[in-house]
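User: Reviewer 2 asked us to show a designed sequence for the structure in our supplementary figure. I'm pasting the structure tokens here. Could you produce the per-position amino acids so we can include them in the response letter?
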């Protein structure tokens, strides 16, 4: 009897020490209603579903225990919708046709402040093509248009580069640094060493370098660089990016299902 009581007490202690997450979600997107959503994250080197729920009348809920804070993605079937940080506390997800946000906990608030700023820069870059068309209609010569818009495009690109780089550097010691690093590197067909990645790795802390995705990506990128420079005795074909690690989340930062 004492052993049974001790076992229950031990389970209670271990459970009380574990942190937990709670997700309260709402959606006005008709494509989501009646569908099953999944929280998917990299665990033990593989992308796995760690929770699921149904969207009922625009509402959905997740809850569970956390062994560690982790980056995850919200999925509908195999379509990634948006990244979510699973951390202790009450996480609030709001989805509509205009925006998708996650908040209520420190890392999610920080991530979506970054995503909002990144989306603003993306919108400004996309607007340049509309301005180009309007300037042509206004009779402005193409050389003048190209000169003016190229300068502005370069300025926006520099702001985007600084935003992403500084965010990763500022978050070396938590899951946001590796998570956003995964987002920006998923755009490449194979691991490469860009000036931005080289700068990030030159500043990287031990914690960041030891992240499994970062470590394997950087190693593969260095090997690919050697292949392309003819310094490696191995095959000249670069290793594909999907040989590094399961990519969750991946670009784009948010990806709404079509209504």
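Assistant: Here is a per-position design you can include in the supplement:
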């Amino acid at each position: 009897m004492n052993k049974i009581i001790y076992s229950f007490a031990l389970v209670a202690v271990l459970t009380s020490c574990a942190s937990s997450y709670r997700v309260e979600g709402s959606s006005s997107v008709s494509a989501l209603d009646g569908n099953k959503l999944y929280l998917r994250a990299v665990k033990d080197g593989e992308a796995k579903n760690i929770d699921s729920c149904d969207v009922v009348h625009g509402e959905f809920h997740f809850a569970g225990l956390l062994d560690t804070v982790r980056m995850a993605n919200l999925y509908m079937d195999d379509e990634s919708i948006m990244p979510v940080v699973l951390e202790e506390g009450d996480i609030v997800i709001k989805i509509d046709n205009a925006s998708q946000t996650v908040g209520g906990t420190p890392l999610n608030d920080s991530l979506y402040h970054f995503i909002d700023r990144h989306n603003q820069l993306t919108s400004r870059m996309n607007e340049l093509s509309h301005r180009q068309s309007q300037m042509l209609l206004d009779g402005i010569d193409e050389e003048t248009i190209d000169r003016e818009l190229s300068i502005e495009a370069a300025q926006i690109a520099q702001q985007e580069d600084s935003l992403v780089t500084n965010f990763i550097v500022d978050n070396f010691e938590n899951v946001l640094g590796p998570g956003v690093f995964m987002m920006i590197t998923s755009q490449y067909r194979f691991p490469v060493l860009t000036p931005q990645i080289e700068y990030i790795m030159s500043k990287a802390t031990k914690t960041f370098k030891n992240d499994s995705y970062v470590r394997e990506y950087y190693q593969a990128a260095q090997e690919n660089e050697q292949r392309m420079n003819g310094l490696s005795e191995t095959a000249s074909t670069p290793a594909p990016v999907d040989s590094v690690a399961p990519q969750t989340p991946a670009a784009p930062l948010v990806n709404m299902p079509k209504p």
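For the response letter, you might also mention the following. Confidence is low (pLDDT under 50) at residues 3-16, 247-252, 255-259. The two ends are 58 Å apart (CA to CA).
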